[in-house]
């Protein structure tokens, strides 16, 4: 799983404990931002409908629905877009032929 803060890949075997932390930056790993259900645009910031509200998405929590993200370092690099790429894509929408 990738750490939400430093994008370091952490090998996790079994369940992620509330006490587990990133091997590089020592951030908590059992946090909403590292969960595959996390969605900033979803209700409560989570796609799991039964999950309780977690106020601080960067701090360890007791959520029983936590599922480690399946991102890889390659995914992290490809999901970030540059402002120029976004601007060009927008401009291409309205380009006259």
Descriptive account of the structure:
There is one protein chain. This protein has one domain. It is extended and about 55 Å long. The mean pLDDT is 86. 19% of the residues lie in helices and 0% in strands. The longest helix is centred in the C-terminal third of the chain and has 11 residues, at 83-93. By secondary structure, it is mostly helical. It has two helices and no strands.
In short:
This protein has 97 residues and is an all-alpha fold. Helices cover 19% and strands 0% of the residues. It contains 2 helices and no strands.
How many distinct beta strands?
0
Number of domains: 1
User: What is the 3D form?
Assistant: extended
Average pLDDT works out at 86
Helix/strand order, N-terminal first? HH
Q: Helicity range of the residues?
A: 10-25%
**Largest sheet entry:** none
Number of helices: 2
Radius of gyration: 17 Å
């Amino acid at each position: 799983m990738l750490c939400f803060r430093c994008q370091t890949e952490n090998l996790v075997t079994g369940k992620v404990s509330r006490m587990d932390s990133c091997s590089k930056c020592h951030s908590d790993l059992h946090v909403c931002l590292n969960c595959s259900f996390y969605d900033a645009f979803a209700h409560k910031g989570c796609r799991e409908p039964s999950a309780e509200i977690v106020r601080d998405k960067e701090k360890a929590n007791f959520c029983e629905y936590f599922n480690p993200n399946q991102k890889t370092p390659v995914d992290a690099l490809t999901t970030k877009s540059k402002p120029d790429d976004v601007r060009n894509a927008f401009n291409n929408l309205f380009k006259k032929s």
